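$ fold --in a.seq
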Amino acid sequence: MNDYNAKNNAAATGNSFKFQTDADRMKYLLGSKGQSRVSGYYEGLYASIYALTVVQDGNTLPSINGPPATGWGNRLWSGPILDAINIGDKFLQDRTSRSDYLGVEIAGYVYSAGASTLRLNIISDDGVMVYLNNEQIIPLASWAYQGPTPINSAVVPLNAGYTPIRILYFEGGGGSQLNVNFSIGNTRLQNLGCACFYNYKQM
């Protein structure tokens, strides 16, 4: 297996490969299997895991603006998510060799062929925030130290085409959990590899 394929296989199977540079990321996006090229968009959302620098005291929150704002440190891992968003201790440990004091940014686009609606059902431990087209769509109180907490977004309008979505999550100490389920219109989506989520627009 050559170097390109080894990296692609490691990222696609969830092994602890880390994209060291944006060039490595692009190498993956342009060469991986199981992706859909539609008008330059690539299937799934794109996740990055960061070391956090301000949560060790169990009180101070990392910035709700995400990286590179206050509290978000070095990027430890990046890669696409094609399955359901189901982040826990094992997901974090396998990718960073740790499961505490971490922040996750998940970003990309939601695609809809026509005007529709979007609803999210979330369980989060600790904090989570979701932006759709740069608008916050879950309560500010969700960005907090908390045990596993159910959080539901409002039913929000979804325009036809590609709408930017960004999910921020942080984990302090103890157990970690982030589960996000999406519904577009009346359809509940089981995973991100369903021609509805994309993570990069080729310029």
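$ fold --in b.seq
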Amino acid sequence: MFGTLILSCAFSAGSTLIPSGFDTRTNFVDLRFSLVFSPRVLSSLAGPVAGAGAPLLSSLWFPVEQRTSSTAIGYVANNMGVSLAFLIGPRVVPNATLNSTADRNTKFHQVRADLLRYMYGSFGASALVFLWIALYFPSLPPSPPSVSAGVQRASFRSGVWLVVRNRNFWILSLAYSIPNGVLAGYTSVMDVILAPAGISQETVGLIGCVAVSVSTVAALAIGFMDDKFRGRIKLFILSTYSLGALAFILFICIYFKLISSVPLLYISLCLTAVGVVSVSPLFFTMASELTFPAGEAITNSCLSFLFKLISIVFLFVLSVPGVSTSWMNWCFIGCLVCSLPLVLLFKEEYRRSNLDIRVETPEQETE
């Protein structure tokens, strides 16, 4: 676990240092493309730790009654970075308005300087985390916090096979990856999508920051509630997905000017984020339960891979010439609604938690 985190932080730091140091200082098109593309590869290599790291840490370091809440804390730490990006990005690199050729040259140099400042700041944050983990981060606690934490996980090959043949896991994965993958792609180009509705880049950044922050608080609350009222993951997911669908229908009405209200615009997007994003820790926890004794890293890496694949497919459509952005609204609401039957289809199985309960209960009775 220690080595994985070190590599992840190194990839993350490198992904921001490379373009900031070289990309804007060369006139060779091929080299510039490589220096822009290669950091994204490094960043992607660090990505699985953000998704699979939290469930693995929670299983190794926390008892049964704290697993979902600890997973939620690890998951929302990544979301807080996204929230800060929404807030900081448009302010560090503001949208440039061009009035003339001379103005364009001036603005170009200003934007380049702003981008460099933004990337150096990102590198500094990644490097700080890298040093923190390198100096101190124990791989395991002194003693296992639960019975299942001390159980030897299946080998990599056996674990992959357990995941691949688990039909229940793939139903759960689709229920998570389809709406969340589309939403991730949607939010990454939200300023482009909302531009036809007359919403500025700065406003979009503020909406994104507020929405992610609210969904972060909701994820923590739901994580703690699931630990307190165990065995109700499907109910939590169904309830929040339904809330998200209703909220986004309200947003569509605002987008197409059937309703005119700025407060409702904020509220609808915040509730959409709450409805979809806040239950993500429950999906990671449930996936680990379904595939036990496969390793949590293998299980949740598969979950993260499917999520990213769907997001890539969604964004790829934007490269088709002549394609507008309004279809993205209908695509997201359709994916979210279609995920509800998938949530109903998957069967809750608590294999890992049941092992802890079966072993710990007789010990308590003996005492």
